[in-house]
Write a structure and sequence with these properties.
alpha/beta, Aldehyde Dehydrogenase, Chain A, domain 1, Aldehyde Dehydrogenase, Chain A, domain 2, 7-stranded mixed beta sheet, 6-stranded mixed beta sheet, 22 strands, globular, binds nicotinamide-adenine-dinucleotide
Length: 495
Amino acid sequence: MSIQSVADLRREFLGKPLDLHIGGRWVPSCSGARFDIVDPSSGEPFATVADGGAADIDLAVQAARAAFENGPWRSMPPSERARLLWKLADAVERDGDHLALIETLNTGKPLRVARAFDVHLAVESIRYNSGWATKLGGVTHPMSQAGEWHAFTVREPVGVAGQIVTFNVPLTMAANKMSAALAAGCTVVLKPAEQTPLTAIRLGQLAEMVGFPPGVINIVFGRGKETGVALVEHPDVDKVSFTGSTAVGKAVLAAAGGNLKRVTLELGGKSPVVILPDADIERAMDAATMGVFGNSGQVCAAGSRLLVHGSIYDRVVEGIARRAGMLKVRPGLDPECDIGPVISSAQVQRVLGYIDGARRDGAELVCGGRRPDRPGYFIEPAVLAGTRPDMAVVREEIFGPVACVMPFDDCDPDAIARLANDSVFGLSASIWTRDIGLAHRLARRIKAGSVKVNASAALDFGLPFGGQKQSGWGRENGREGVEEYTELKSVAVCL
Ligand code: NAD
């Protein structure tokens, strides 16, 4: 398929039935229902996909179970699984322009970001995880019990993995989650976010083309309350890996209890960015601006709470507001676009509601926070100064382009950490300083799954990522991320 333009995409991809992928076949849903996919840059529907329900989830889980228990996947040498994953990464890379175009149409993000970031990271994640297929061994253990023993541990795939993802980086997240599970030897039922199912379809097509056996990868679209719940509650799913909001994560945890599924939760955040007076302030401001407004603020680890030393506070507020004002808020297909729309009209109202509430609570809107005069779900990036830790805009995750800036005066690491930790979330944090000792003291004290020093993002698939506190359970990436899809068994042989 050669896709050069949106017209090609409409003809070659969107113009064909966009169905569920179950047991190696592309099928409509049992009910025959379909739902619309909306372009957030225009607010107009531009595709329909099959609307899967509980019956479709059941078929997908049966297919994944059959492929796990009886199919070639489990008996395939790990090196073969690795090779197939690597082939999938190559296919995604070759299809990159096409995938980026689909992602931009579906999410509204800038096309160059979809190409350089989303597609690139999808490829990298699959390549990284493929390497673990051949390395998930156990250890031997010296037994103290009388007799002669050979005791050892083995890592076995947990079984059928149900994977639920959100809308902000749909391709990267699906590729990363699926490849980790597949490297461990699991089979997968993926439920993409209802807003952004399209790149998952293309990923499924590419997996089929490179030779993944039927039933190893199943994809069912639908809404959270029906399709997501059916997957999480299904008694034949062994593990759920969920990425989404903290509120839904808690519901997932409760619903997974029926058969005590293994559960990994990648949830929300309200991540602090601490800027100290000795930092490279210009660099910190550049990074903090994109760290909070990149992807229209729809990033779990967005640095949305800026804690800035009082001596540089005015300069940083002014500098970040100036940078925010220069970002071009446009449809993702516009080559000049820096910031696309947010995902939905409901999300626009939610973001504007938080900004209004903050102003009523006494915060100052320094820039942005308005809807540009055009269709679509656009919001100009907003900088709120004079925010306080008790405000809803500071305590709650917005998942939109809103930066809250707060001053602090005490450079004692315990005092700074108290401010940074004043949140139910603990996903990520950034520290900007040239004082390496202070940086390490803060990194120890801040409760977050990831701490970055003099950087706003440090994404590497070898580095475990996940949340402390209400930002989640378990880790993705690294050995730990793949091991989340395994059970550890010990075997003791009395010789
Ligand atoms: P959401 O929780 O509303 O939905 C996420 C997914 O869960 C969707 O596929 C949805 O259909 C499904 N879902 C909804 N209700 C469900 C239920 N009861 N049972 C099972 N599935 C259900 O989240 P959202 O608004 O789409 O995404 C934004 C959230 O995701 C933010 O909180 C953000 O921080 C978080 N997120 C976290 C990470 C991370 O790695 N920690 C990454 C990206 C996004």
